[in-house]
């Protein structure tokens, strides 16, 4: 005699089947979407220096928020409030691809090769496109304007045209310390 199939039992079987199919597919898609290992984790003998923060010391005022899709809302970079000098440094060696004003705010874009491009704004700079810059070299000073809070620098990174979290190249997310609440 066949076992009676209740709607609840069928729903449970459907959920288990869906999870069995979707979890491996999501894991494969997530693995494929991950950027290659950051330059910061390259072996020292590879000739690649770790990236440096474009302003230091600083306070992180707005983190990276990945958009759900290419045109979705998000924050495609991090915002840093300088706690000292207004100087802005190149996070890694590269070539200035753009230095000028866009929509009333100063922008410096550096091509680091290997598909990595950084954008710093609002930054006033006298560098010309084509200028070679070294890691840690001053590329300009913090200005006002742009979409970041006044006095902060927006630091965005693209890998092969897609925005990635800049902190991946700077050693990841800073270590958090949990304190008791009471």
From TrEMBL:
Swiss-Prot/TrEMBL keywords: Hydrolase, Signal
Gene3D superfamilies to which the protein is assigned, alphabetical: Glucose Permease (Domain IIA) (2.70.70.10)
Signal peptide: 1-29
Taxonomy, superkingdom: Bacteria
GO-annotated molecular function: metalloendopeptidase activity
A family per Pfam: Peptidase_M23
Domain M23ase beta-sheet core: start-end pairs: 74-166
PANTHER family to which the protein is assigned, alphabetical: L-ALA--D-GLU ENDOPEPTIDASE, PEPTIDASE-RELATED
Protein name in the entry: Murein DD-endopeptidase MepM/ murein hydrolase activator NlpD
